[in-house]
Amino acid sequence: MNHFFNPLYLVKLMVKILVLFYGYGSIVELAREIAKGAEEEGAETRLRRVRETLPEEYIKRMHIQPSDDIPEVSLDDMRWADGIAIGSPTRYGNMAGALKTFLDTTAELWMKGELYGKPVTFFTEASTVHGGHESTILTMSTYAYHFGMIIVPVGYSIQELFNTTTGGSPYGASHLGIKKELDENERKIARFQGKRLAQVAKKLSS
């Protein structure tokens, strides 16, 4: 039978996308938009957060509201996924420590080559235009090189990336934090990124 008409083949093409992040506020909304874009492409998604590592007194002092409604990520989530999106707000041009702590626990995946060849994409948030949008994504991406993953950038693929008053870059979706809420351009870029990740995962899976 031609595989195009084989129902089992079509089921196989429904890829699984993990959207993994650290943070709160706009980074959570970016994660949700990326998941939404992947779902529009027909993917099954999981939205997961990494465990908070900041001291409790600091969390209270800074009025941080963790996303407790979203489950914590596990290594099994990483194994489950055909494609992964990883996000963090910038911390002085780098990923947040909590995300780094989680990624440091994935050594057993590395030793078994369980993420090798999987597509991965990155997203971030920074308060100012030059506050780390690009460097944070670049520093997160070094993880992918060590695991042999396939980095899926946004590229200059949609018109919204040419708007200079919003977040987003060819490296990945981002939020310009001087605005409290995501603007429509940022939402469109994030949804496109999720859709593109699902498309690449689908091609690799097929």
From TrEMBL:
Source organism superkingdom:
Archaea
- Listed GO CC annotations: membrane
Q: Where is the Flavodoxin-like domain?
A: 16-197
SUPFAM superfamilies (UniProt xref): Flavoproteins
Matching InterPro entries, A to Z? Answer: Flavodoxin/NO_synth, Flavoprotein-like_sf, Flavoprotein_WrbA-like, FMN_Rdtase-like_dom
What Pfam family does this protein match (any one)?
A: FMN_red
GO MF annotation: an example: NAD(P)H dehydrogenase (quinone) activity
Q: Which PROSITE patterns match?
A: FLAVODOXIN_LIKE (PS50902)
Return the similarity comment: Belongs to the WrbA family.
What the entry lists under NCBIfam families is as follows: flav_wrbA, PRK03767.1
This protein is called what? Trp repressor-binding protein
> Which source organism does the UniProt entry give?
Candidatus Aramenus sulfurataquae
